[in-house]
Amino acid sequence: QVQLVESGGGLVEVGGSLRLSCAASELTFSTYAMAWFRQAPGKEREFVAVVSPTVDMTYYADSVKGRFTISRDNAKNMVYLQMNGLKFEDTALYYCSARRYAIAYHSTDYDYWGQGTQVTVSS
Q1: Rounded to whole angstroms, how far apart are CA atoms 52 and 104?
Q2: For residues 45 and 37, what is the distance between their CA atoms, to the nearest angstrom?
Q3: How do residues 83-116 score in pLDDT, each as one tens digit?
Q4: DSSP 3-state assignment of 20?
């Protein structure tokens, strides 16, 4: 059974940084595009960033471009999200997701999901 387990969330001040991690198991990790999505209270789940299976392509939502960096380590079955310059509006539950082969930007295109890790940005 495929498992995605996120960690690294927490409470951080505006302008601060966090690094989220996602550990994947029971899948051929190097054949999956890996993405981060987030969902704030009362809002729909939104795309944050995605990395292709072979790490040659990354894409970001405009709202996080230049502040967040997605990366992966195929040897460790891990994907990361480095978040710098955090803003109030980055507060959300962050989810790791996996999709076979090709990258995508819509949550409905993803096959597997973690339980999420909470990020709260405060003053």
Answers
A1: 9
A2: 7
A3: 999 999 999 999 999 999 899 999 999 999 999 9
A4: strand
